[in-house]
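One example given next:
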Amino acid sequence: MNPALLYFITFTAGYLCGSVMNAQIITRFVKGIDIRGIGNNNPGAANTFKNVGPFWGILAGILDALKSLAPLLIGYYVFKLQPVALGFMGFGAVIGHGHPLYFGFRGGRAAATLMGVFLFFIPLELLAGLIISPVIVYTFIKTDRSYWTPFGIIAISALMALFTNHPVEIKIIVFAVAILGLFLNRFYLPEMAKNLKNKTKK
């Protein structure tokens, strides 16, 4: 198959999977409301956890990770796709969460979906990020934890991937997805930085 066509197909498949907004579906089912109108208006696991319930928030997070991880596993084991094609699929899944086709292109931060991509490509680095980031956030930052913790997990995982024995294409995929995650969080970062600065002044 022509590589350009293959990349288009894998990106589209990832995007369509990523466009399934689990927090939105769960909140509609449990409370009959649009999660984009409660809490911080973000259709993600953290907002679901706070405003719908811990169980539902955890479930939303797991499903958001699976909607990127499952297609990658199928692509790798069933269709024998190579890393670049899988990278397009993961990239598409993250964009799908941020700008979902089925929900008027109003999506979320895609942290869990991005972690699903990392779980496939760099599982050990992700595990390290999952351990280190909460320790740093809860010990030193102590503000905007629901934002800083996933941000730290993603940043630590991506940086660690630089110093481990991964092929160059895997490192490029990881950093491209991480940068995409930063872009989807661009509206939250100034407020996070402001709150952190105010905290350090106290």
Observations:
- The chain has a mean pLDDT of 93.
- The CA atoms of residues 65 and 116 lie 4 Å apart.
